[in-house]
Structures are given as C-alpha cells and as structure tokens.
Amino acid sequence: MSGPLDGVRVVEIAGVGPAPFAAMLLADMGAEVIRVDRVDAIEQSPGMDDPRFRIPERSRLSVAVDLKSPEGAEIVLRLAGTADAMVEGFRPGVAERLGIGPDECRARNPRLVYGRMTGWGQQGPLSGRAGHDINFISVAGALHPVGLAGQPPVPPVNLVGEGGGGMLLAYGIVCALLEARLSGAGQVVDAGIVDGAAVLLSTMLGMRAAGTWNTERGTNTLDSGAPFYGTYRCADGEYVAVGAAERHFFDRLLETLGVADDPRAAGNRLDPGRWDAMKECIAEAFAARSRAEWMAVFDDVDACVTPVLSLDEVAGHPHNRARGTFLDIEGVVHPAAAPRFSRTRTAAPRPPAAPGRDSADVLRAAGYTHQQITGFVERRVVVCQDRTAGPVIDRTGGRTPC
To answer: Which of 46, 147, 163, 255 has the fewest CB atoms within 10 Å, i.e. the most exposed one?
Structure first.
C-alpha cells in the first residue's frame, strides 16, 4: 500500500489557499487526486510558472477543462461519478452556477463526499464577501493575540488560516468517508477558514474563561510576555527560541546562561511584575554570543532552547535530516508527508503537475474515446500541456493532440 488512503479517489477543482492544501494532505496519504485545472487560468498565464514550485499541488493528475462550457461541466460530473470525494474552494453559489454543485454531483454518485472550502463558510452575513487569511483569522479572534505588547497584531503569515482551514477540510472529508462506508451515503462538508482558526483557539479560550489570559497581547505566558517563553537575539543577529516554562527548565536556563545569581533573574518567574527585569537579564546574556555558540552550549542541556531557523536552514538541521522531515524533489525543498504510519507507509510525494499534463489519460480512464478527446481539444473544452515524451499513444492506435 502507498498510504492509509490508498484506493480513495478525489476530484479537486483547482483553486488557491487551503483547498489545494487539503487536497495535498489527502494525496500525501495515498489518495488518487485528479486536479481539474481551469482552461481560462492557463490561457491567462501563457507558459505558466514552473509547476515545481507549487508544492501544495504535488502528487496529482491534472486535466485542464473549460468549466464554463456545458461539455466541461459534464466532464467534471463524469469524474465525480467515479470518485469518493470532491474538493472545491469557490465562493458560495459559484459551483452551482457552473452546474457542478453538490446536488448535481451527488445525483451522479450518492456516495460522494463533497468538500467545500471557503473563508467565511457557506452561511452567515459575510459568506459572500471576499477576504484573505488575515481577514478570516481576525474575525475568528486568532489574529488579535499575536504580537508584542503595545504593538499592532502581527499576521502569522498564512499558517493559521490556510493551515487551520485546509486541515479542517481534510479531516472533515476523511470523517465523512468513514461514515459513508457505514451508511452508504455521502454528504457535504462545509469547511470555513474562520471555523478552523476558531478551533485552534480552544486552549486560549479556556484560559480566558479561567481568568489566566489577558486580552492585551504580549502580556501572557505564551505570547512573548513571559521571560521563559519567547525569542532572544544573539550577537550575530540570529535568534533562539526559549520555552522554559516549567520551574526546573527555567532554573537550568539561568544556570547555563550564567545569570542564576543575577538579582534581575531572582523572584517568582510567574509574577508579571518580575518579567521585564528577567527578560532584560536573559536578553543581555544571549546577546553576548552567536547563535551557533549558544547552540553548542545548550547541546546537552534540557532547557527548551532551540535555534530559530530560516526556510533556507530547516532542511539541514540534524534532527530534520534524521527524521527526513524535508525532502528534495527536483531541486525544491518539500515537507515530507505527515503524520507517519507503521504499516500503511506513505510514498514519497511526486512533483506538482503542469496544468493539463494528464488530460488525455484522465479522460480515457473516464471512458471518453480518442475521437471525443480530440474534439474537446479542438474546441478548447480541454487543454493538454506538451509532454517531454511527445504525443500520447491511444490504446486504439490513434494519436491524441496532447
């Protein structure tokens, strides 16, 4: 087997953000994912960017279809008819207008799990509005706590929105697939980025309810307010991350830094009134040596001190190398598939496909003839990207224009 989802077929309508990320997670776990790229998107970007760099689109087959044509919509419906799940990331109502909404798809395949990824969800006063990660997580409450005291909120790049939303959709699809095996019926999975970000706030919401979390950012134990949980600048301008939250880790930190006897480090580490002095003391110590020097000092010390690595450094870290956390695929650093399984191990991800690379293969597998495929290409219902191996040879002996 090539992963726990081996044998599961997914149709993905190409998009951006968390929807392709969710499809990547499913493909990483062994699902066969067919990505339906839009013909108009290819025509608007002649030559396309190098597909190797679109990591969230890895391990897919790609067929390029004109979704605005009735024939193109029919191709999607035929693909949905043999799939276990479908993924789309349109605004609410768009898939229905194209004729590939959940009702149309599930009429062809009642067992189909239809996954919908949006920013705001399918209902609510903002459901039809545009937005990006920063907007969705701001309304979810996940942006406000991120940042330093007295400073504006800092966008956590797209990790919380795209990551939270994409994982929510992938999780929802797998849950619905499990249920469909028992009931024999599919269903619609409504995944909103705002919902995914809200779920990630569970711990903070509990702390707030208990009165142990302040709404003023940068003043709490886990948001850089405390001296034992934050980052410190070293002599070379690089940073270390400190997570010495427990007393014994904090004591070890102070001892290793050589500041255990400094009056500024004395007192109750949980007393916010002592935090500024403690941070000043620790910051001065770290600033005296380079990051590499401090990592050598802390190499055998269990004090929760680690280097803050850049994207250019992560693949070379000894721990990441030992676990194979990152892979080199055609000269591009990829994260390895995660999590890991003892029996149904996942295969190495495949490079992202150029849009339309597999159009002929996908259509033939769906039952279309050589003549039909040729007609689709001539009418621009389907686009085929050139292959380095030349034209595809049809089983009947004909040569497709792909």
So the answer is: 46
